[in-house]
Amino acid sequence: MITPAVLVRPIALGDHGQWRYLWDGYNAFYGREGPTALDEAITRQTWDRFFIASDPVKAFVAMMNEQVVGLVHTVYHPSTTRLHDVCYLQDLFASASVRGQGIGRALIERVYAEARSAGCSRVYWTTFENNQTARRLYDRMTHYNGAIMYSKEL
Q1: In the chain, which residue ranges form alpha helices assigned H by DSSP?
Q2: Does residue 98 lie within any of the structural domains?
């Protein structure tokens, strides 16, 4: 069986329904569903930010057979330890039906290319220690630097 080609492109207004389906799946994976779901205002704001040229938040989608099957969101920001901005790969998700077919890799490679083009000196991201499926991909694409993230809700 031949795997269909993957096309990664900037998100478009017409992608909202398919993006939303994946966004909800991504959030559910991280326990943000039902009573712990994100406030709808956050989702609306996130979507709107993709289409503000000056906003540091960007989004790309992966397409197979004319369907949106993956998403990635990024945030560009300055760094205190570098001369050039860095790119935080904030959200990465592929539909369960296409996992293992190169969607995650294609999305990450597009982020690398976009960040390089924007003059960034680094792309970085976080994941949970027990997310072994994702970590197998990440370990093939870069190296784990041993960082541990702490977070405090305010």
Answers
A1: 16-29, 40-49, 103-117, 132-141
A2: yes
Q: What is the pTM of this model?
A: 0.91
For 31-42, write each residue's pLDDT tens digit. Answer: 999 999 999 999
Helix (H) or strand (E) holding 98: none
In a domain? residue 114: yes
CATH code for position 62? 3.40.630.30
Q: Is 142 contained in some domain? A: no
pLDDT tens, residue by residue, 49-100: 999 999 999 999 999 999 999 999 999 999 999 999 999 999 999 999 998 8
Question: What is the rounded CA–CA span in Å between residue 151 and residue 146?
Answer: 16
Give me the domain span that covers residue 84: 7-123
Q: CA dist 106 to 4, 17, 23, 40, Å? A: 13, 22, 18, 29
Query: What is the separation, in whole angstroms, between the first and last Cα of the chain?
Result: 50
84 within some domain = yes
